[in-house]
Design a protein that fits this description.
With about 325 residues, this protein is mainly beta. It has one domain. Helix content is about 5%, strand content about 35%. It contains 1 helix and 22 strands. The protein has one helix at about 25-35; strands spanning about 5-10, 60, 75, 85-90, 95, 100, 110, 120-125, 130-140, 145-155, 160, 170, 195, 210, 210-215, 240-250, 250-260, 270, 275-280, 285, 290-300, 305-315. The chain has a 7-stranded antiparallel beta sheet with strand order 1-8-9-10-12-13-14, with helices on one face. Strands 11, 15, 16, 17, 20, 21 and 22 form a 7-stranded antiparallel beta sheet that branches. The chain has a 4-stranded antiparallel beta sheet with strand order 2-3-4-7, covered by helices on one side. Strand 18 and strand 19 form a beta hairpin.
């Protein structure tokens, strides 16, 4: 059984994400491998390893085969030369060095480093030995509140086939302010920010874009935004969620571990006075059986100003 762990930038001893190249990797290293803090406030790492010494603003982390993982390698590349330069995530089936690997997923943005004049980003990481997700709210100045929230992640899905050797995934925005977790339906084969190393059969080479199957509100709302009812149940007291099903070519391959799709309004709205999303970044929802689902926000900075979120289990095993 795996152990779910929750990390947040306000923890004592937590490393910051700031304008310094390598700060994204420092956060993942602390959360996945080394831990941080001391005494009663110390948090241990999630059980991953770092198989190669980081160099040139590139780092690689590997999930745990002992805990049942594929042993996939997650590369984080911070070689962009400015705050506007992208930080990229890519997942490989195997690697022999920081830059050489086999059967990679597509690369997605882990967004960008804050400007030197901006305050550090607020971040959340939820992880176990096989999978991690992180949500970062990006400031645009020293005085601004954290805005531009987004979510990305990597590791293994929960495949519905025990023989699925390519069940490792990478997800994140494909460009600045682009949404992920879009409802692609059963037949979508286009890349919307989620890919696996290969098809589950392993026959076709090259990364395999997948979509998530969810319920989209009539107005095209992103999961959990104000296009959904606040209390969708008959008695008005219950909130409902569904698994984040991973789909391609009419096949439900599995589901994202630890993630639930909210079928209700999570409290994320567009704030017309600021032009950004407005939400409580520490929002969580209690569900039966001791489940505690933490809100990870999504953002789309277009004329439609669509906002939404997903819920990630921070207490129970994934």
């Amino acid at each position: 059984m795996t152990t779910t762990r929750y990390y947040i930038s306000s923890d004592a001893g937590a490393p910051p994400i700031n304008s310094t190249q390598g700060s994204y990797a420092a956060v993942l290293r602390a959360c996945l491998v080394a831990g941080y803090g001391s005494g009663g406030s110390a948090k241990t790492g999630a059980g991953w390893t770092e198989p190669f010494a980081a160099s040139g603003n590139i780092a690689v982390f590997q999930n745990s085969t002992a805990a049942g993982g594929t042993g996939c390698y997650v590369q984080i590349d911070e070689t962009g030369t400015s705050s506007a330069g992208p930080v990229k995530l890519t997942v490989y089936q195997s690697m022999s060095s920081l830059t050489d690997g086999t059967n990679p997923t597509n690369s997605y943005l882990a967004y960008r480093l804050p400007a030197a004049t901006a305050k550090p980003s607020t971040w959340h990481v939820c992880a176990d030995e096989l999978t991690f997700y992180f949500s970062i709210a990006q400031p645009d100045s020293a005085a601004a509140v954290n805005i531009y929230p987004f979510t990305a992640g990597a590791g293994d899905i929960a495949s519905f086939s025990t023989a699925d050797a390519y069940r490792y995934f990478c997800l994140g925005p494909m460009g600045s302010f682009q949404p992920i977790f879009a409802n692609g339906g059963f037949t979508s084969t286009s890349d919307i920010g989620l890919s696996l190393g290969r098809e589950y059969t392993g026959i076709v080479s090259g990364y395999s874009p997948h979509s998530l199957l969810g319920i989209t509100a009539a107005n095209g709302a992103i999961f959990g935004d104000d296009g959904y009812p606040i209390t969708p149940s008959l008695n008005g007291a219950n909130n409902y969620v569904m698994p984040a099903l991973v789909v391609r070519n009419n096949v439900v391959r599995g589901k994202l571990r630890g993630i639930s799709i909210p079928l209700f309004h999570c409290g994320i709205d567009f704030d017309s006075s600021t032009g950004h999303s407005a939400y409580n970044e520490n929002t969580s929802f209690a569900f039966p059986g001791g489940s505690n689902l933490s809100l990870f926000s999504l953002y789309k900075g277009s004329s439609s100003k669509a906002h939404g979120g997903v819920l990630i289990e921070q207490s129970l095993s994934w």
